Amino acid sequence: MKAFLTVFFKELIMFFRSWGLVAVVLYSFTVDVYIAGKGFEVKPKNVSVGYVDFSNGVISNKILSHLHSPEFQKPVRFLSEEELKKALFNRDIMVGIVFDSDFEKDFFEKKAKLNVLLDATAAAQGYVTLAYLQNIVLRFGEESFPVELKTHKLFNQNADTPKFLSLAEFLSILTLITVILSSVVFVKEKESGTWDIMLLMPVDSKIIILAKSFSQIAIVMIGTVICVGIILFGVFKLPMNGSFTAFLILTLLYSFSTSGIGLFVASVAKNMLQVAQLSVIIMMPIIFLSGSWTPIYSMHPALQKLSLLSPLRYYIEGCESLFFRGTSVFDLWVNFLALFILGVVLYMFGFRKIGKLF
């Protein structure tokens, strides 16, 4: 235990002496998560709109008057559809609206048609913009609907996108940082030429591997507390409806999984550049199969089965359930069990691979 603690604290001291590495980790857990939450908007913002109005009526002007900032720029009028399409082609506008000559007459007869031209190269914002336009147009209709539709937003009542974006970025950063740190702590010994000196240490190689990898997991846990406390809770007001202790345990189990991958990378990589390359190559499929980019239910059936091998899938599901849904720890036993099993398997695999170099 004395040898373990000596190596453990030695690695922590070496980390805090490396100002560049400390700055990268702090930036990743704070500024990067903040930018991801604040810098990306899914809802329309400052969307450029052009229109052609052949009706010259009151209704078309009323509809256009609802397209105001900050969602939309002031609509620009064009004299013909050809000019409108040319502006769309040149990316001068994102949305084009065409009011037919009989639009106002057809509107009062409840058969009006509104033509919308959409630049779908910006697909996410384009189709959200289309939904905004549909809601605006529906306000003018007097359609009788046999059922009164009431929407109840659960878990995120204000539909606050930054909360989800910041949490998703945190999970991705945690994944990459754990893999990289677990690799760097060994690879820097190769680069600095101290690997042979480390082998001559009167300490069991297993103690060295455990102490070095555990020290990096401790750094990641410190970064997690800083990110969650300052950025997620402080800036984005992320709710914590479940157990915070359960979240920390879940994070610890997940860190063992990614640390095992980092040990494998360290056993193969010879320098820092190879660490970065291998980390990205290995982690991209894991992130893709986790459901963070594409919902698992919309994947191909074969990929849905492969996603069961991604530890990030269980970590994301567990974190979202704890933060937003307030799910009981007992109801998340599958996530805890899966992360425990994957953590043991992946860590032991990486442990054996790096152990062959001693």
From TrEMBL:
It is a multi-pass membrane protein. It comes from the Bacteria. It is found in: Cell membrane. PROSITE patterns: ABC_TM2. The keyword Transmembrane helix applies. The keyword ATP-binding does not apply. Keywords: Cell membrane, Membrane, Transmembrane, Transmembrane helix, Transport. Residues 130-357 form the ABC transmembrane type-2 domain. Signal peptide: none annotated. The chain crosses the membrane at residues 12-36, 164-187, 207-236, 242-266, 278-298, 332-351. Belongs to the ABC-2 integral membrane protein family. This is ABC transporter permease. It comes from Persephonella atlantica.
